[in-house]
Amino acid sequence: MPSRRSFLRAAATLALASALLAPLALREARADETPIVFAASSLTNAFQDIGKAYTAKTGKKVTFSFAGSSALAKQLQSGAPASIFASADTKWMDFTEEKGLTLKDTRVTPIGNSLVLIMPAGTAKPVTLDKSFDWKAFLGADGKLVTGLTDSVPVGIYAKTALTSLGQWDTVKSHVVGAENVRAALALVERGEATAGVVYSTDAAITKDVKVVGTFPADSHPAIEYPFEIVKGQDTPAAKAFFDFLVSPEAKEIFANSGVVVK
Q1: Assigned domain for 24 exists
Q2: Which Gene Ontology cellular-component terms appear in the entry (predicted)?
Q3: How many angstroms separate the first and last alpha carbons of the chain?
């Protein structure tokens, strides 16, 4: 079983690859006034499909930058160019509002998600996630449970909250490995480098290499909600047009097909 350091190194490599590719795309988008959307990693597939639908309908392009919500919020704080911010939780959207980075009066929260336990497809076995679940037996002495960083990345925060609510955090915390975002956590489970992972149901749905083995009770964590806001100073016609499209019937259908909860 790979060490904790190897997990972190793999997650960091995935995050670095995204970071290296993002700046050029953002500069190009700024040059031609293309809306730039900062969105939580768990929205990658849905937003890419919505972007394609928007371009097909209007002929206009959209540029996306996907990462953990905490990383995106801090990039906005550092002056990174963006038109729209879509967070995986309310905490980081509240943060950008408090810092005067996003426009509170534009907030919409059109979608939600659920929190699931996944395993590599070859070792998956259904479990019931309640207060009596035997995590010690499930993980063994050296098993790793990967999720987002539990002090900053929304999926990791939800995971810690759910495990704490179920009275299991003290049992599992020494096995938990935090990744920079939910897709990095998913990748580690896909490759069989972790016993299991805690991700969103939408992430589990994009690959056949993992299976959902259990769903955390809805009352074990706050509702998983995705607020969207326009970035301060970027409420241009182009940004507003795509923002409106994000809550249109066409977008809602794409969201629904990706597995998110449409409100």
Answers
A1: yes
A2: outer membrane-bounded periplasmic space
A3: 41
Instruction: Look up the CATH number of the domain holding residue 235.
Output: 3.40.190.10
200 is in an annotated binding site: yes
- Is residue 78 marked as binding? no
What contacts 27, CB < 8 A, 6 or more positions away? none
What is the rounded CA–CA span in Å between residue 246 and residue 250? 8
Known binder of ligand: residue 3?
no
| Global confidence as pTM | 0.85
In this structure, what are the phi and psi dihedrals at residue 59, rounded to the nearest 5 degrees? 80, 5
d(CA 1, CA 70): 29
Question: What pLDDT, in 10s, does the model give residues 76-122?
Answer: 999 999 999 999 999 999 999 999 999 999 999 999 999 999 999 99
Q: Has 226 been labeled as part of a binding site?
A: no
pLDDT, one tens digit per residue, over 164-188 is 999 999 999 999 999 999 999 999 9
**175: which residues sit within 8 A by CB, 6+ positions away?**
135, 139, 143, 144, 145, 195
How big is the chain by its Cα radius of gyration, in Å?
18
Report the alpha-carbon distance of residue 98 to residue 48 in Å, rounded.
Answer: 29
* Residue 2 in domain: no
Q: Are residues 128 and 104 part of one domain? A: no
The answer as to whether 3 is a domain residue is no
Query: pLDDT tens for residues 203-256?
Result: 999 999 999 999 999 999 999 999 999 999 999 999 999 999 999 999 999 999
Query: Total structural domains in the chain?
Result: 2
